[in-house]
């Protein structure tokens, strides 16, 4: 097969490209230029897509003896990922830009362009597995639970999975680094990128303030009493405890968390930890990694990229929304986050959370 290997300049995508070549495929390396003003060097382990990263990817391609190209997708990345990130926070939601990037850039923009140019598929360095079945390809968790990235791939459709390749899913990260060293790749010891790639210093609130300006307002408790002030409700997310700067402590000195963000009123609501527990979640923008499931079924439910899998049941209601009921309450579920459903290790699909609350257990069990 003719394969485009997405090469970020890191160790994972380097080994992924090498493994596809070893498997006998005709491989072309492609680095995505996602920044309209790419930095020359990384500031830290955060971030990616610097000129340094492009150079690292090119050196790996040269060592492998494969063609290498840089595809400029900066404008599309800004519109589909960065601008979406800003507008979601401005609306009081907490987005996951990695899912949006996979959905709209790597497996829409990149894959669509590759197929249009006559390639058969795209290979990436994601830690996940593709399993061939009589019903079609399935997306499964990686064998290394510490590196599993199936959550951020839960936005892929069956058609996209048909042309996707994840050659690292059966290997642990230490093994990948050892293999890179054996192959003579200079990136073998290169630090992993993490957090949000386009916020290199990790200061999300400061980054948002630069783009949205200060929008001061009150921080109130659940009784409506003003207990602090903020410079922008967009800088807060449900479940947050640090950085609140509250001026009025509770009489019992209990810790308080963000329990609500109301950007229209420029208000942040705080409360005690017991108010964060929810077990009923609703989501829209559904994406199925195969045929859409029918009726209500039991699933494993994951709410964060590195969160634990929770038992629950889910169904699609008459309005086309995903309704998930967890077996136990969990904390810090915010609108804008993604909920991904699993059947064993198989990824069933995902949705974007629109709301979360406590189910009326007493009424349902009486």
CATH class of the largest domain: Alpha Beta
Overall strand count: 17
Quote the beta fraction.
25-35%
CATH arch. level architecture of the largest domain: 3-Layer(aba) Sandwich
The secondary-structure element order is: EHEHEHHEEEHEHHEEEEEEEEEEH
Computed CA radius of gyration, to the nearest angstrom: 22 Å
Q: Report the biggest beta sheet as strand number plus sense, adding barrel if it closes.
A: 6 strands, antiparallel, barrel
How far the N terminus sits from the C terminus, by CA atoms, comes to 59 Å
Structural class: alpha/beta
Q: Count the domains.
A: 3
pLDDT < 50 runs, ≥5 residues:
40-47, 361-366
Principal-axes geometry comes out as: globular
Under CATH, the homologous superfamily of the largest domain reads HUPs
Q: Would you tell me the overall average pLDDT?
A: 91
Helix content: 10-25%
Annotated CATH topology of the largest domain:
Rossmann fold
The strands making up the biggest β-sheet line up spatially as 12-15-14-13-16-17
Q: How many helix segments?
A: 8
